[in-house]
Amino acid sequence: MAEPPSLRRPRALLPSLMFTSLTVSVISTLGAPMVPTIAREQHVSLGAAQWVLTATLLAGAVAGPVLGRLGDGPRRRGAIQAALLGVLAGSVLAATAPGLPLLLAGRALQGMGMGLLPLAIAVAREHLPRRRMRSGIASLSVTTSVGAGIGYPMTGVIAQHADYRAGFWFAALLSASALLVVRWAVPAGSSTPRHPLDVAGAVLLCSALALLLLSLSQGMIWGAGSATTLGCLGGGVVLLLVWFLQARRAAHPLVDVRLMRNRAVLAANVTALLTGVGMFGVLSLVNLYTQVPEGAGYGFHLSLTATGLVLLPMSVGSVVANRLANALVSRRGPLRVLPLGPLIVTLDLVALALWRDHMPVLVLGTFLLGAGVGAAYAVMPLLIVRHVPPSETGSATSFNQVLRTIGGAVGSAAISAIMVAFTPAGSLLPSDTGYTAALLVTAGTTLLGVAAAVVLPPRRDTSFPATVSPVVSRGSRAALGPTPPADPGVIRRGSDR
User: Quick one: which of 50, 78, 170, 428 is 20 to 30 A from 452 by CA?
Assistant: First the structure.
């Protein structure tokens, strides 16, 4: 392996990476609080406006593994800058778009930024001194929840006192600043060998997801049994199957699906997918419900700023649960703690379905959402690292992140479909019953995530003998448990449970 390139400004590297990660995290959350405002100003239904979030998630699902592959070798900084240029272009397009189609195109370009956090962590892992590596990786990981917590109220203040376009101009300013920071502090390349980009895999995965999400979100408008709906659904399933077969045979696939044969990895990935649906179910529905305009007969008629403050406890719950989950894993093992996250999200969705007309319940609901997601996402990387060979850790954790994003995109599209189904003819607002139905449907989905976390894991320890990377934090190091036996054929019963 080649020597890592030298740093021009070593002290500025971590702050620069944190600023970049925080920037893309804030920008990725811009769409959610502004869905009702965009629906009113563009004169479209809430279901159609919900695509400003779905489009970003769809782009982010593909951007992660693509950028990860492009970031190998001598052009890592170029890959980061290209993604930020896409975010900048998308921000300007969204701010100036005269109609919803161009606005959605801009939001899709902004979704490219969702693939930058793994690249930022890779840079930190390679270039930070060992004494700063643990705290540096932990700081970068927290930027996702911190960015969401900052993004919602900040977006509300900007859009309320100007309009939603001002929020996208602010995103353009942030992304332009991040471009300058990356150019100034991030090294040009990496010592990781470069592999060719799996273009066929990227095209197949993106096309399959687009068709599936289109059938989910527009199926109620076209008709559940219409040829268009069934064609999109069938085409998406076929393309997804073709992508899966192509990924199994490719020398350097976009994501290594062969790792799914390990049942512990399969449990983590299925749970990630289903928990992502529930996460964006709560996020989208609480955001919509709090901003329902006066005269609808339900909701709270809050401003964007107030809605951002209601969603703020999600960040607090995520940080608290992340630490508690690490402590539990160190005592009970990751497989026993894995069902806890989706279970909290399920109970949260049911509570919101029954008692959402009380503001304290909504605030508690956003806190519990953060707690459930934080607990789930704290356990999944630990479980994957323990059950895959060290050489495949990057591919396996990247695939898990893609599935989280896909789950969010599916959840967002499903919410769009349910909102459309419960919107009376001639109205742009769904009935209150639509919110109840959407919350219960997403609760059923996350309950399947609980079942997957309980049923799918192996009965015996299938962990690989491996040393723990020095970038793992102290809590995570303990959470991984004792080093597995040198002989992988030696099976220890119950160690993960």
Answer: 50
pLDDT of res. 488: 35
State the sign of the Cα–Cα–Cα–Cα dihedral 232, 233, 234, 238: positive
- Structure tokens that stand for 288 in this block: 């919509």
Please report the pLDDT score of residue 106 as a whole number.
94
Q: What is the pLDDT of residue 391?
A: 54
Longest C-alpha distance within the chain, in Å?
68
The residue behind tokens 């939603």 is 164
- The Cα–Cα gap between 440 and 356 comes to 12
pTM of the model: 0.74
> Residue 396 corresponds to which amino acid?
A
Q: Which residues pair with 493 in a beta bridge?
A: 460
Counting every residue written for the chain, the total comes to 497
With 0-12 / 13-18 / 19 or more C-beta atoms within 10 angstroms meaning exposed / middle / buried, residue 12 is middle
In 3D space, the residue among 83, 103, 134 whose CA is nearest the CA of residue 35 turns out to be 103
Rama region for 322: left / alpha / beta (φ>0; ψ in -120 to 50; rest) = alpha
Please spell the DSSP secondary structure of 83-131, one letter per residue: HHHHHHHHHHHHHH-SSHHHHHHHHHHHGGGGGHHHHHHHHHHHHS-HH
pLDDT tens digits, one per residue of 162-213: 777 888 898 899 999 999 998 888 887 666 666 777 889 888 987 887 788 7
What confidence tens digit (pLDDT) does each residue in 237-271 have? Answer: 999 999 999 988 888 887 778 878 888 889 989 99
Backbone φ and ψ for 170, nearest 5 degrees, come out as -65, -40
- Is a pLDDT exceeding 60 seen at residue 5? no
| 84 phi-psi bin (left φ>0, alpha ψ -120 to 50, beta other) | alpha
Task: Report the candidate in 17, 115, 136 with the shortest Cα–Cα distance to residue 66.
Answer: 115
Could you tell me which residues come within 8 angstroms of residue 409 by beta carbon, excluding any fewer than 6 positions away?
A: 54, 57, 58, 61, 209, 213, 280
CA angle 422, 423, 429 (to 5 degrees): 125
What are the helix (H) ranges across 333-459?
A: 334-337, 340-355, 359-387, 393-421, 432-455
With CA atoms as reference, report the closest residue to 364 among 282, 260, 427. Answer: 282
Measured at the CA of 164, the angle between CA 163 and CA 169, to 5 degrees, comes to 100
